[in-house]
Amino acid sequence: MRRNTIFLMEKNVEYIKEFCRFFENDYDILYSSDGEKAMEIYAENNTDIHLIILDSNLCEKKRCDILEELRSFCDVPVIMLMENEEPEPQIVAYRMGADECVSSYVSFPLLKMKIEAILKRVYGTDNSIQEGILELDLDKRTLKVDNEYIDITIKEFELLSFFMRNKHAIQSRDQIITAVWGINYEGSDRVVDSLVKKLRLKLKDASNYIHTAYGMGYYFELPIKEPA
Prior knowledge:
The protein is α/β, with parallel strands linked by helices. It folds into two domains: 5-123, Response regulator (Rossmann fold, 3-Layer(aba) Sandwich), CATH 3.40.50.2300; 128-220, Arc Repressor Mutant, subunit A, CATH 1.10.10.10. It is built from eight helices and 13 strands. The strands form four sheets. A five-stranded parallel β-sheet has the order 2-1-3-6-7, sandwiched between helices. A four-stranded antiparallel β-sheet has the order 8-9-10-11, with helices on one face. Strands 4-5 form a two-stranded antiparallel sheet. Helix 1 (13-23) links the parallel strand 1 and strand 2 (28-32). Helix 6 (154-165) packs across helix 8. The longest helix has 16 residues, at 108-123.
């Protein structure tokens, strides 16, 4: 069975310890109690993170600021921990892109059921991503294009995974470099253009799934079908 990764952004260190004790047998856990550090951790591990649990406040960064920043470039599901059940903060959170709002005091067994429901809905029962004629197996790290296996390098796989998991969102060269080469990469950002070119060639009839946003970066989106 696959191991999904949960990223817990939570200011309460004791809550983090209890969360890890309860969930570590079922999931890989990343965590941070600091908002600025949390975004760095996400940037370094984004292709491996399947779900984010976000607490109310993380030092100087508010949860809505973090959610807004996340939603500017990714679609990873987010559960918001709410301090009370007042409707207005929940409405704001949903409008900003939260997938679920739950009480900070929710029991771990119930939280686990909510997590499992979201992961099943978003990722299905196997660890693969399918878009159009593309099928990416995240466990075996293989790519099929129109049911044909295609040889793909590690960097090409990580780039395509990053695009497919964050479809529709424009990714700058800096964001792509952080996702594929890591935050400490110091080379030219033109390496992105070279890798995109190589990947497009391997995608064949799906090469037009990767779009260029001139002056901004790239994004993944299936072509719009013209009416018959």
